[in-house]
Amino acid sequence: MATPRIPPGMNPRDKRPGERRAVPRPGRPGGAIWYVLGFLMIMALAQAYFLAPAGRQVSYSEFKTAVRGGQVAEVVVGEQAIRGTFKADVDGSRNFTAARIEDPKLIEELDAAGVKYTGELMNRWLPEVISWVIPLVLLFALWSFFFRRMGGAEGGVMSFARSKHKVFAEDDVKVSFADVAGVDEAEQELKEIVEFLKTPKKYTALGGRIPKGVLLVGPPGTGKTLLARAVAGEAKVPFFSMSGSEFVEMFVGVGAARVRDLFNQAEQKAPCIIFIDELDALGRARGGNPMGTHEEREQTLNQLLSEMDGFDSRKAIIIMAATNRPEVLDPALLRPGRFDRQVLVDKPDIKGREQVLAIHTKQVKLGPDVDLRVIAARTAGFAGADLANLVNEAALLAARKDKTAVERSDFEDAIDRLIAGLEKKRVMSNKEREIVAYHEAGHALVATMIPGMDPVHKISIVQRGFGALGYTMQLPLEDRYLMQRRDLLNQLAVLLGGRTAEEIALGEISTGAQNDLLRATDIARAMVTEWGMSDLLGAVNYDGHKRNKFLDISMGPERGAYAEDTARLIDSEVKRIMTDAHGQARDILAGHREDLETVTRRLLELEVMEGDELRRLLNLPTGDVRESPENTPLPSGVQ
Question: What is the pTM of this model?
């Protein structure tokens, strides 16, 4: 159910001192149209009443005939019409009206017939009013109506200086820390903020000062916004929510005005929480653009810095913000007195993922074979949003198959779909299926035969995703935060195992190893330029730029500042590392040539082979590695 939005200055329960009541806005667009139509109808009736000719309408020739026949008693000669009275009723009416025609003999004929006649001084004020004044009044009324609509408080064009935040009253925020899991460290940090909002005197009595700003940093989908709402829900205070991009407009000065308006309304609602999502859209470092500065964005940032310095911390207004790009923020935002507390909201470990899955499966009917810990072990690297999507995908798959509960197989299919992509039903030729089978068998054999490598969990030659013709998935046995040089070299051998298997078995190579070569080359170049793992070049970083902490994007130029001779040495070292890894994979596969054929033929029969089946074919111990506690990397595969 959507959370209702509270207009600024309104409280859902009672009216507080200095607080405005919401007054219905008069004059809706539909009502204004009816007013205009009614006014036009009144003017039409007035015109018909005051300007309509009186009596029976006769032609000028009939009028002249009546004058000659002595039937006319008197007439009033006007500029455009002649009105008169017959001596007796004609067709039930004595009054008549005739259009005037230039007739020099009219007066003589009236005198000869003894008709009393008079002239008429035409009073033209009503036609003038109708033809000039009334249109002007109508235009002014329409202009006033549209101007009020443009400047209204309901998002009109002229109200762009107003803050576009959403306000949630203390009773409307239903999220609490019970709805958050997998981020225990961040939750513990934020409980102190909740305590301060509940009992601020506990801290101010001792002379302490709560941090003005709390910056939540972490990868996308880890629950930063949810944590901010949970703080407001626990503290039972109003929650002002706005995105950083909503401050900046094309008009200079609008963003700064919106910042002032936001803080003014927050001070009236203190204690409260101001939450700015995607802070990097507003708080990017100034002066970093070589093509010039963005004046509007910098003015908005300066106003935000000024407001954070200006408001009284004793009013218990907490400013919270979230971003997944902290390295691009202006240093002035991160100094003490502003966002002086940074809270990392990282991806959960296996225990945290199990807790997150437990929250998202509360409303889902689970089968008896579903073990959330096994699912958590298979979903390493998943953020909270990814896990929520996984549960939803599994429920949709189960509903598609008309099941009464979501089973373990549905979760496994959903994981394969999220990691490797959507399964395709295209038919490949026998030759291509054989190439893909040898390729994936090569990956699996090298990964299995190298000591200490993560065990193979699944091999598939079913097409998935964007051009993936197959994949080999490994399931790590433990949390790993560091990689040694030997681990990276072994990983390179596994990546090159597919291409090497094609060379040995078919005597030819294909384009299927494109993604493997790309990933292997990136690792080899990083070993040389970033991690100092080349004996020839030594412990020097040649990369020349830093990477984003939470997003896989580069933050600087493509190449560091080094000479051409160094560049040639880097290229030669990368080539040497790749050649050594290729040789290692070739030695392993050449020594297990029969096993390569056995695994390939079996894979062609099954299309999808579990890790236990692979180890059974190789006469190795089997076991349910899905209950291992950690990370599932991206699958190696033909693309």
Answer: 0.66
